[in-house]
From TrEMBL, chain A:
Keyword Oxidoreductase in record: yes
Protein name: Xanthine dehydrogenase family protein molybdopterin-binding subunit
Keywords from the named record: Molybdenum, Oxidoreductase
Coiled-coil boundaries: none
Superkingdom of this protein's organism: Bacteria
Domain Aldehyde oxidase/xanthine dehydrogenase a/b hammerhead span(s) in chain numbering: 20-128
Region described as Disordered: 127-146
Species whose genome carries this gene: Paractinoplanes ovalisporus
Length: 728, 197
């Protein structure tokens, strides 16, 4: 085995378990004595719970406990330790948003817990919640940022001086992660030690949050999240239901499982904020930018959450311009906690700026690809740093060629196929691509295999396989000889969470470092162990290569060596530092999306018929899982453009809080997707040269769809999603 | 083949606390809650169905769905609950050879029925052609929707109605994959379709 698996097609090592239904997710555990919990959520948008009648529920068969604010269970506020919400569940009677947890019923079966929960009634005093961005805005700004050319007094002045100006205001309602696995927690206490089975994007962070909210030592909580049914951001924090489940299991002295219903998920585990954005462009008549302004108003729930910042990851880093200003405002609303959702600010931000660019292309008559090349940035327009590595121009050119961009109708609404209007659109993708700190443990074992462990998580990203590929590459062994381990907070501290598209870029260097150290440790053991054939040699004369240890003519595989020494394993743990985010380089991954749509002339029905995207992500570790991630991101863009929306009603109720009303793409919404990447390792990011790609596909893809719809119909829809009624 | 098992790295204590979790023979699995239900005889319904080839007599609360009985009582947790409302397809199994969403199927109605779940699809340790095809084409990411996708696809192929990619897309649209592995799913169904002929 001498060919490195890096960049090749490696099948998921967790595949066999997943296709046979044997991979255990959080709700699949059945410890002895298990009981079931069912949550009760508030049905007013803001107010106070005056009283709750739990008598019927308590008298119902099989019910073990009913917890409410009036008969609570102690949970400690861990907001300071990176919690999502600033209040503590069940510790007071305040209702801060509709759908807040106000109770938990525990019973011996699932059916009994659910039915008993339905018997609980609540009386409220309620007031009108603030739910509308438009009515409550404009928000407060954490501080606008700008760069102005010498002698220019303000961004408005720069815009006013431009021969061509474009003003585009776009808006979207709340969106939801809708991971297919509902959040579930199975809590098992043994003496004072808690094992928590739950989905998680970072089991180690999760464990410390749970420990803090229970008031126990972090070492007393072990989070096991080996299989996680999607995250997309929603499984970064430990949410209230997990804390409640752990606390109730402790109080009852029974293992407890709490699985949220699909409807409950819409208000309890974060959502992407609703947001309105205005992009103003000022350009020369040849399309070169003079000024760019990007402003936004997004929700900041009174209970806190993720601040949606759509401009800093898009307009601030995308195009060369002498004058730029971004102002990202937050509006306080009585909505459930917001949280990062795949391309958290970048996906909506790119929709705004890439729509505006399409409008500028239309206005100036310049081809959209050419317009972007004319405004190509080699430095961040706002921050001024050079990019570590950037081949976006190639993405545009290769993408245009693969897609057949030259066949794009120049005039909107000029090509038809029967009753179908055909249009093509494109947009740029960009997403931060640095790397964070990580850790890994590598262990040579006397069964001839190697454990490669890291306290990260695989939420579908392919991290299991990434560990195996990275270990196999570093040790010159087959992928099949690797035994990956992840998704367990008990693994060496400092594992990278699956966030910010950074787990692979961060973890591969840690695995490489741990492999090198494990080899050093193996050689040291070989020269020091009296039973080793290499005993007494100078370590400098002993080599490791492709699983074999040798010196002169003596050579032995590590399995036989370990057996000869009578040592079951030799291991090493390494921690690696991340890259300084404020260092000299800006790390970004890039891409170009090209989309063709067909819009029915009479019904307005929109079908995405072709999609081509070309990416610049540095080194790809596993072609197979990388392709899936990029395709998944693109499909999220299709969903964002055409389907996903959850308007909120004045009483604080989400109008589409279920999977029949909150539409996500299904198979028939998705055409064949052509994904391609360039092969340019990033020399600044790490030795292996891999930047992130998990969210990149989702950035700009909605704009490519919207721009194609405009090209097909001549209608510019700025309020997402683009539905057929808006095209008639 | 690389091995990733749920017992990797598990402590003895944890193993003990979870004994019984991985049991696969239906007959040896304790029926949790059976004792409690016995007290409530008037509401019970006796049902005898065949699950993955094993005759399985059960006494059920009439509220119990096939999905919950499979998962919580028979410990066949390969079948997943994504919505419990018939909206996502994660819970798809076969009843008498037809695909159904098990979350909307009450066990009380299944007397004499033949139920096949993802655990009963493969022939022993050899993967079913669809299972292999899903691996070959990366027809999943997180894997949570996958048992439902595969059971759905098996029925679609059996039906013989889905031949073109577009027909497969249409027929498979009741199974949502939020990871959006759709192109891989279509390719996997195409591959397995040819092998299963
Ligand atoms: S769980 Fe049955 S369709 Fe979603
Ligand atoms: S593989 Fe994650 S939902 Fe389909």
């Amino acid at each position: 085995m001498s060919v490195s698996p890096i960049g090749r097609e490696t099948a998921r090592v967790d595949g066999p378990l997943k296709v046979t239904g044997r991979a255990p997710y959080a709700a699949d555990y059945h410890p002895d004595g298990l009981v079931y919990g069912h949550l009760i959520l508030a049905t007013v948008g803001r107010g106070t719970v005056r009283e709750m009648d739990v008598s019927l529920a308590e008298a119902a068969p099989g019910v073990l406990a009913v917890y409410t604010p009036f008969r609570s269970i102690r949970i400690i506020n861990d907001f300071a330790g990176r919690g999502a919400e600033n209040y503590t569940v069940l510790q007071d009677t305040t209702v801060r948003f509709r759908g807040q947890i106000i109770g938990l019923v525990v019973a011996d079966t699932l059916e009994r817990a659910r039915d008993a929960a339905a018997l609980v009634t609540a009386e409220y005093t309620s007031t009108t919640p603030r739910t509308s961005l438009a009515d409550s805005g404009p928000g407060t700004s954490p501080g606008a940022e700008q760069v102005l050319a010498p002698g220019v007094g303000s961004i408005d002045e720069a815009l006013a001086s431009a021969p061509v100006t474009i003003t585009t205001t776009v808006s979207q309602h709340a969106q939801h992660h809708v991971a297919m696995e509902p959040h579930a927690t199975t809590a098992v206490w043994q003496d004072d030690q808690l094992t928590l089975y739950c989905g998680s994007q970072g089991p180690q962070r999760h464990a410390s949050a749970i420990a803090a909210s229970l008031g126990v030592e972090p070492a007393k909580v072990r989070v096991i999240a080996r299989y996680t049914g999607g995250g997309f951001g929603s499984r970064v924090p430990a949410w209230n239901e997990a804390k409640l489940c752990a606390a109730a299991a402790r109080a009852l002295g029974r293992p407890l499982k709490v699985v949220l219903t699909r409807e409950q998920l819409f208000t309890t585990v974060g959502h992407r904020s609703a947001v309105r954005q205005t992009v103003r462009l000022g350009a020369e008549s040849d399309g070169r930018l003079i000024a760019l302004s990007h402003e936004s108003d997004a929700e900041m729930p009174a209970v806190a959450g993720w601040p949606l910042m759509p401009a800093e990851g898009t307009s601030a880093v995308l195009y060369r311009t002498p004058n730029i200003r971004i102002d990202q405002r937050l509006v306080t609303l009585d909505t459930p906690s917001t949280w990062a959702m795949r391309g958290p600010g970048e996906a909506p931000g790119a929709f705004a700026v890439e729509t505006a660019f399409d409008e500028l292309a239309t206005r100036t008559g310049i081809d959209p690809v050419e317009l972007r090349l004319r405004n190509y940035a080699v430095r961040e327009p706002l921050g001024g740093r050079r990019f570590s590595s950037k081949y976006l121009d190639q993405c545009y050119r290769v993408g245009a060629m693969r897609f057949g961009w030259d066949r794009r109708p120049r005039r909107p609404r000029s090509r038809t196929d029967g009753d179908w209007l055909i249009g093509m659109g494109m947009a740029t993708a960009i997403y931060q691509g640095g790397r964070g700190s990580s850790s890994a443990r590598v262990q040579f074992r006397d069964d001839g295999r190697v454990t490669v462990a890291s306290g990260t998580s695989d939420i579908g990203t392919g991290a299991w396989t990434m560990l195996a590929v990275a270990g196999a590459d570093a040790l010159g062994l087959p992928v099949a000889a690797m035994v990956p381990e992840l998704g367990d907070s008990a693994l060496p501290p400092g594992g990278s969470a699956a966030v910010g598209s950074g787990a692979t870029a961060s973890t591969v260097p840690a695995v490489q470092a741990a492999c090198r150290s494990a080899v050093t440790a193996l050689i040291r053991a070989a020269v020091e162990n009296p039973r080793s054939p290499f005993h007494g040699l100078d370590p400098a004369d002993v080599r490791y290569r492709q699983g074999r240890v040798s010196s002169g003519r003596r050579s032995m595989g590590f399995r036989d060596l370990l057996r000869a020494m009578g040592v079951p394993d030799v291991q090493a743990v390494e921690n690696t530092e991340g890259i300084d985010r404020d260092g000299p380089y800006a790390f970004q991954s890039f891409g170009a999306h090209f989309c063709e749509v067909r819009v029915h002339r009479l019904t307005g029905d929109i079908r995405v018929s072709r999609f081509t995207s070309v990416f610049d992500v540095g080194t790809v570790i596993n072609a197979r899982t990388a392709r899936s991630q990029l395709i998944g991101g693109i499909i999220w863009g299709i969903g964002g453009a055409l389907l996903e929306s959850d308007p909120i009603e004045p009483d604080g109720r989400y109008a589409a809080a279920n999977m029949a009303d909150y539409l996500v793409p299904v198979n028939a919404d998705v055409p064949a997707i052509d994904v391609h990447w360039l092969d340019h390792p990033d020399p600044q990011v790490s030795e292996v040269g891999a930047r992130g790609l998990g969210e990149l596909g989702n950035v700009g893809s909605a704009a490519a769809v919207g721009n194609a719809v405009f090209n097909a119909t001549g209608i510019r829809v700025r309020d997402l999603p683009i539905t057929l009624d808006k095209l008639l | 083949m690389p091995v990733v098992t749920q017992s990797e790295g598990m402590s003895r204590r944890e193993l003990l606390s979870r004994s019984g979790v991985v049991a696969t023979a239906v007959a040896t699995v304790p029926l949790i809650g059976a004792d409690a239900l016995a007290e409530e005889a008037p509401g019970e319904v006796g049902v005898r169905m065949t699950v993955n080839g094993t005759v399985t007599p059960l006494t059920v609360d009439p509220r119990e769905t096939l999905l919950d009985v499979l998962r919580e009582r028979l410990r066949l947790t390969g079948t997943k609950k994504g919505c419990d409302r018939g909206q996502c397809g994660a819970c798809t199994v076969h009843v008498d050879g037809e695909r159904v969403v098990s979350c909307l199927t009450l066990v009380a109605t299944l007397g004499g029925a033949r139920v096949t779940t993802i655990e009963g699809l493969a022939d022993g340790d050899r993967l079913h052609p669809l299972q292999q095809a899903f691996i070959d084409h990366d027809g999943f990411q997180c894997g949570f929707c996958t048992p439902g996708q595969i059971m759905s696809a098996a029925a679609v192929i059996e039906d013989g109605r889905a031949r073109t990619d577009d027909q497969i897309r249409e027929q498979m649209s009741g199974n949502i994959c939020r990871c959006s592995a759709y192109p891989g799913i279509v390719a996997a169904v195409q591959q397995a379709r040819k092998e299963m002929r």
